[in-house]
Amino acid sequence: MPKPGDRIIRVLALMEARSVTGPAKNLIAFAKRVRSLTSAAGPGLELSVVTFHRASAPPDRFLSALENAGIPTHVIRERFAGDPTVIQQLLHIVKSGRPDIIQTHNSKSHFLMRVTGLARRVPWIAFHHGFTTTNLKDKIHSHVARWAMKGATHIVTVCQAFSHDLTLSGIPASRISIQHNSVESFVRPTDEEVSLLRKQLGIPGDVGVVLAVGRLSSEKGHIDLIEGTALLRAADAAAQFRVVIVGDGPERKMLESRLQTLGLSDYVILVGQQRNVRPYYAIADILVLPSHSEGSPNVLLEAMAAGVPIVATAVGGTVELVCDENTALLVPSRDPKALSQAMGRLLQDRVLADRLAAAAQAVARRSSPEAYARSLLEIYASVLVGRQKQQTREPPAQLYVD
Question: Mean pLDDT of all residues in the chain?
């Protein structure tokens, strides 16, 4: 078993992403955080990333973020979907880098690990962030990922609900670890930044702000937030608030059409994708997470750390992070009426809102990036110990062919 100062553990992480998605942001944060932990506190770790790129694709923000963070990166060039040269490129990267552990984060990388048989030679940790099944392509990717992950040495997922789903698919619970996401302490923007944002959005200082942050896709439930907003305005026409939705995605045109139909275009503002969301948390009186499914939502953790009162649907890992009437108001998913009533409560009852926010902020302080990084280091060490024990019972596979 690796002991403090024994040696460096080399981890190769495969992730296909073009933008800095939640999992991508977490991977970058972990890579930066672990640098400060590679001392006498534990075995050293070197993490490098493999990502995928097509020349015909738009600018790759994920690759730029990796470069800006100083994370060693290998780029697999794809000519088209299903390009068979991807396998040879991956095998070359593994052969030259000689990683101790390979970890994967998406259906494509899970699939590549399974079909190449690399897991027979290098311990493989599959990170499961949840499935999106909004169309046939998503469903096929999810099916492939479930099949592929059965070949992983170990699986790290983000909530109990996802772990249970994996065991139902035939993966033993002993091969699954649960790691909720971590969150940095909130650094409040300056008053000037906050004032400027309100001015840009056209929201006066005495008007409340209901914030939602997330990709505009059907499973995020933004349509329920819009319907709930209409119900809240109908119940109290004098209520002074605006809804600000940060994010972009395939549902945008449908949401804009529904806003126009309901006469809410002046009350709900779609601001698109934002690189810096901190000022939005700073102007928010409420954070609403109306999702139909969730794992360990970064948005929820960020709002908790920022001290923003929360209304959320009781789905997935959300109920493992916050408790109804204690750290948030939880409502059933796909229920605009319940959503509108909870929003109205927090807008009207500042004492309740402040109590929930303070309690949630205290919980968020326990979800530090340092604790998350140390926990993953323990998983890496445990997986390596398991592989060493396996090799003492059977002839070891030749790791690399020179």
Answer: 90
Q: Give CA separation, 30 vs 178, 305, 353, in Å.
A: 16, 18, 32
Task: Specify the residue for token string 């001015």.
Answer: 199
Alpha-carbon distance values, 49 to 43, 322, 376, 388 (Å): 19, 32, 16, 25
Could you tell me the CA-to-CA distances from 248 to 85, 226, 241 in Å, in that order? 32, 15, 22
How far apart are alpha carbons 53 and 42 in whole angstroms? 34
Phi–psi pair at 172, nearest 5 degrees: -60, 140
Q: Which residue has the tokens 């810096």?
A: 276
The C-alpha R_g of the chain, in whole angstroms, comes to 23
pLDDT tens for residues 85-118?
999 999 999 999 999 999 999 999 999 999 999 9
Evaluate if residue 401 carries a pLDDT over 70.
no
Looking at this protein, which amino acid is placed at residue 173?
Answer: A
Secondary structure letter of residue 221 according to DSSP: -
- One-letter identity of residue 149: M
Q: Is 378 left (phi over 0), alpha (psi -120 to 50) or beta?
A: alpha
3-state class of 191 per DSSP? Answer: helix
Q: What are phi and psi of 51, to 5 degrees?
A: -130, 175
Q: Give the tens place of pLDDT for each residue, 390-399.
A: 777 665 555 4
List of residues 6+ apart from 161 with CB closer than 8 A: 295, 315, 316, 317, 320
- Determine how many CB atoms are found less than 10 A away from the CB of residue 319: 18
User: Which structure tokens are listed for 345?
Assistant: 């409560």
Cβ-based neighbour number of residue 169 at 10 Å:
11
